[in-house]
Amino acid sequence: MALVVLAILIDAIVGDPPTLWQRVGHPVTWFGKAIDALDLRLNRGAARRQKGVLAIAALALGFGFLAAVVAGALALLPGPVGLLVEAALASSLIAHRSLHQHVAAVADAPTLAEARRRVAMIVGRDTASLEEAGIARASIETLSESLSDGVVAPLFWLAVAGLPGLVVYKVVNTADSMIGHRTPRHEAFGAAAARLDDLMNLVPARLTAALVILARPALRHRFAAIKADADRHVSPNAGWPEAAFAHALGVSLGGPRTYAGRLVDGVRLNAGGRAPDRSDVRAGLALSRQVGLIEAGLYALLALAAALA
């Protein structure tokens, strides 16, 4: 657990140093290049679903094995050096600091046009015609879902299975974002990546909602409403953090949105809530920080208990 706590601290203090990743490339870009290569090579002809299973298995096992070798080598270094280096590597796959920076940039945009431009950098929906409420809704939805799959889930898998577990999770999550779409090209080939990502996020998504409730104790009386909203969501996981944030902030999230000119009618979360504005985005950022502090505190307690055992 000390590894998890150190990774949280490094991410909070340093984040992702752009100069370093410009020189050596961010680990997620390595994953992306490997996914692209297998997509180009295997996603053709017959048996695409089976080839997709082979691709995600090769990616997860290959990068997981590499991470295990690195972790084993670092364990041989004297004193705390290996632990610190491993924590630094792990922190590069945790996105709390960068998530806050990107969402805060939307909240602080000086004009509506600039807010649209900035929110377009963090969401996949069309943003050119979004008004203030639509921008705030998109920002809070992205903040809550990314808190789950970009912070809580990576730390969960780091705690459960060390650096290899974290790397496997990030590979699967990256593959889901790249090929796990129901498009003519990827519906069959990316199905295994999408299902495995759903499976690996089952616990973290619900853990995120629980952490939000810990940060806002009054929400415990609204757990049934949060669960009902989450169960109606098209995703088996994304509804949990989004519904928890909607109820915590008193706003309505979800609903219709447009992707590449095509209208998608999403489920309403906390349908009786008010329309969000940018002050709610800032409140969401504060809630995300509270969740992060609670999570860090829990892992610190587990680390202390392990040290005293």
TrEMBL record:
<keyword id="KW-0812">Transmembrane</keyword>
<feature type="transmembrane region" description="Helical">
    <location>
        <begin position="151"/>
        <end position="172"/>
    </location>
</feature>
<keyword id="KW-0169">Cobalamin biosynthesis</keyword>
<comment type="function">
    <text>Converts cobyric acid to cobinamide by the addition of aminopropanol on the F carboxylic group.</text>
</comment>
<comment type="similarity">
    <text>Belongs to the CobD/CbiB family.</text>
</comment>
<dbReference type="GO" id="GO:0005886">
    <property type="term" value="C:plasma membrane"/>
</dbReference>
<dbReference type="InterPro" id="IPR004485">
    <property type="entry name" value="Cobalamin_biosynth_CobD/CbiB"/>
</dbReference>
<feature type="transmembrane region" description="Helical">
    <location>
        <begin position="54"/>
        <end position="77"/>
    </location>
</feature>
<keyword id="KW-1003">Cell membrane</keyword>
<dbReference type="Pfam" id="PF03186">
    <property type="entry name" value="CobD_Cbib"/>
</dbReference>
<comment type="pathway">
    <text>Cofactor biosynthesis; adenosylcobalamin biosynthesis.</text>
</comment>
<keyword id="KW-0472">Membrane</keyword>
<keyword id="KW-1133">Transmembrane helix</keyword>
<dbReference type="GO" id="GO:0048472">
    <property type="term" value="F:threonine-phosphate decarboxylase activity"/>
</dbReference>
<dbReference type="GO" id="GO:0015420">
    <property type="term" value="F:ABC-type vitamin B12 transporter activity"/>
</dbReference>
<protein>
    <recommendedName>
        <fullName>Cobalamin biosynthesis protein CobD</fullName>
    </recommendedName>
</protein>
<dbReference type="GO" id="GO:0009236">
    <property type="term" value="P:cobalamin biosynthetic process"/>
</dbReference>
